[in-house]
Amino acid sequence: SQSMGKLVTIRGMIVRASDVKPCCVVATYTCDNCGCEMYQVVQNKREFMPQRICYSARCRRQGGVRDTVHLQTRGSKFEKFQELKIQELPSQVPMGHIPRSMSVHCRGELTRQATPGDVVTIDGIFLPQRVAESGYRAMKAGLISMTFLEAQHIIVHKKSYDDSIADSLSEEAKAKLDNEIMEIATGEDPVGRLSSSIAPEIYGHEDIKRALLLQLVSGCTRKLPDGMRIRGDINICLMGDPGVAKSQMLKHVSSIAPRGVYTTGKGSSGVGLTAAITKDLTTGEMALEGGALVLADQGICAIDEFDKMDEADRTAIHEVMEQQTVSVAKAGIVATLNARAAVLAAANPLYGRYNRKKSLSENVNLPNSLLSRFDLMFLILDVADVDKDMALARHVTFVHQNEGLTAKRQSDVDSDDSEDEDMNDINGGASESKTVPPEIVREYISRARKHQPVVRPDVAPYIVEAYVGLRMQGIPGSNSRKKQFGDQMTMTARQLLSILRLSQALARLRFSDFVAREDVDEAIRLTHMSKASLEDNYEGKGEGQKDDVISRIYTILRDYSTASRTKRIELKLCEAMVLRKGFTKQQLQTCLEEYQTLNILLVNKSATHVVFV
Predict the structure, then answer these.
(1) Rounded Cα–Cα distance for residues 385 and 232 (Å)
(2) Residue 211, number of CB atoms within 10 A of its CB
(3) What's the rounded Cα separation, in Å, for the pair 313 and 371?
């Protein structure tokens, strides 16, 4: 009440924006009796008393003839008017309160600046407004008045990837930013460095962080001449045991994304996710209000506790994930809203923890039609492993000691060097490289999204061959172990599109306009790694998995050698095969070294070919 009539600044999120309507500023009248024209400036912004008496000399001589004055719409002056509803940001809500909201009146050029879902700072005059002019409502309200904000200036924060921060910087800062971004792009393994900067406080999960980075970049949305759209957004599902930091990663990604919306399964209904029909307060008409998926348009919608959603509400997501629209036919309104959002879902298995005695489809408890819409589905199992547990515990205590990760992690945290090397191996070397601040990650992604990579003619057959090979692996009976996985391990045609999308995102991260073979290999490796935690559990448990990995790589090479009837294989080809199966170059190197000491394999001096003895 102290700020009433004063200029205030408010920060919040737009939840509803009305249509832009004309509002009368100057009313023009003509007199039927004498033809005189009069003007009346509308002082009160919401209503005015029309004039009835003509004040010209001729009419005055006749004794003030009444009701000859008519309002001329054509001569009156109108301006644009829009009403916004602004809500408090979740971080500013007092403990135990619900977020407060307020209506904002925008006029002239301030209209159409903000859309629902934007975070804005509004400067405006804080004014009272009577509940009603007359009648029962005015009597009931008494002296109490509502408040609104007469907007004078609007700043929109974090719009979309297309608006880069470089536009608002000075020349020096711009040059420094360009240098930092080019240093990451031309440096060693830009994808690894950027992915380790996503939630750096969370230990491990390298492949998941890579996938989340690719989701932020996303593939190219293709619009065909006949009007068909092929989506470019990548949908990811994280399914895993409790306590593997799923929700934490979801929160971090929704904060990095320019339009990130975070909801939980039980706390959101199907209408709340798609679109609701509400009554407009000013006009009393029915109006559509977008839900979480519409608010996250061209951003990311993170849905936690996905498995606890009701079945009826979950079906609302089907259309968004493939067609990327929300179709509504309610209360006489038939509309199609855009919801070009990437869905990031986190869920627990059916029994709380993953039950290894049951098949995958029995554990997951999600319909097959929904699962095939996810490009990547990561199964994160919490398996006891002394080295990993030790490294994880060290990492967590390190973060607590230093109140967050410092720019560069000290390698002398522990005394034992060999254990430290093991830790770096497990952590994928993420601890060595410096983490990149979120602003630079966002700017890097916005520049990467400007590229529209295409598949070269020489890479296309390679993708076809890889896809067919993966389909053959999924045939029941081809491998007895696959039978245990249930029917959800099989590749569908959607999987081919997801490999294309992932490889396009990888090409974008290299600032390239063409998809290379390495991108396709990495995309296939990620699809393999998403199920790898399962396969590791089915294959040789107990006797140290390091050796098991080496023998599996050797089996791949030997099978190829017997199939192609040659004892001499190119090392590049070996790398491609091994990477496609989800192993790393280091593991291949270890395998070759070990089998060379046993005199089973030989690598020539120039390291271009592998020869079986």
Answers:
(1) 38
(2) 25
(3) 16
* Three-point CA angle 400, 406, 410, nearest 5°: 90
Instruction: Read off φ and ψ for residue 571, nearest 5 degrees.
Output: -65, -35
CA distance to 179, 234, 436, 456, per residue, from 231 (Å): 33, 8, 29, 20
Residue 574 has which token pair?
């070996």
Classify 458 in phi/psi space as left (phi over 0), alpha (psi -120 to 50) or beta: alpha
Euclidean distance between CA atoms 87 and 380, whole angstroms = 37
**Backbone angle region of 439, left / alpha / beta, with phi > 0 → left and psi within -120 to 50 → alpha:** alpha
DSSP letter (8 states) at residue 434: P
How far apart, in whole angstroms, are the C-alpha atoms of residue 510 and residue 520?
Answer: 13
Ordered DSSP codes for 354-406: --TTS-HHHHH-S-HHHHTT-SEEEEE-----HHHHHHHHHHHHHHHHTTS--
pTM for the full predicted model: 0.71
Of the candidates 358, 362, 321, the one whose C-alpha atom is nearest the C-alpha of residue 339 is 321
pLDDT in tens, 409-451: 444 333 333 334 333 443 434 344 577 787 788 888 888 888 8
